[in-house]
Design brief:
This protein is mainly alpha-helical and 160 residues long. The chain has 2 domains: 116 residues, Nucleotidyltransferase, domain 5 (2-Layer Sandwich); 39 residues, no CATH class. Helices cover 48% and strands 6% of the residues. The two termini are 28 Å apart. The relative contact order is 0.09.
């Protein structure tokens, strides 16, 4: 319980677990929120370096899920200093790439490593899988068409 509810970002900030709150209060000068941002970026950067070494290079880096899709500041902090690996971020594309609606390449045109933002919606996949199983329409995921695969798909925003 303590590891799941009182550690991580909440443990560092002492108050917040939601990155939106952390970003807001960091921008207002809260040092613990700034520390949480720096620690998160450092850890992600460290993992990228470790995996790049293990794989003997990188072709692409993909940011996904809420923080990866919507937080251009986090993406910038993570990638800053990795230019020696051939990673070159396009600042404008990075800011414009904060969306849950489309896949976006945010690397510069001369970057040796592609950097992308790819939205995910695990909850939608779970719901569609369960509904299809209950209706007897589910085979395997490679032969199942999800609603978001339709070109006309538009995500319904339930909350902001």
């Amino acid at each position: 319980m303590i590891l799941n509810k009182k550690s991580g970002l909440l443990g560092i900030t002492g108050k917040y677990y939601d990155r939106r709150d952390i970003d807001k209060f960091a921008s207002e000068g809260d040092e613990r929120c700034r520390l949480a941002q720096e620690m998160e970026a450092y850890r992600l950067k460290k993992y990228i370096g470790a995996y790049a070494a293990a794989m003997e290079g990188l072709d692409a880096i993909v940011f996904t899920a809420g923080a990866g899709e919507l937080n251009h500041t986090l993406r910038e902090k993570v990638l800053t200093g990795l230019e020696f690996m051939g990673i070159k971020l396009d600042q404008k594309k990075n800011v414009e790439g904060s969306s849950r609606e489309k896949e976006t390449v945010i690397s510069a045109s001369d970057s040796k490593v592609s950097v992308m933002v790819i939205p995910t919606d695990e909850e939608l996949v779970f719901v569609e899988d369960v509904a299809a199983i209950l209706e007897g329409k589910y085979d395997i995921h490679t032969r199942f068409t999800y609603s978001f695969q339709d070109q006309k798909f538009k995500r319904k925003v339930l909350h902001k």
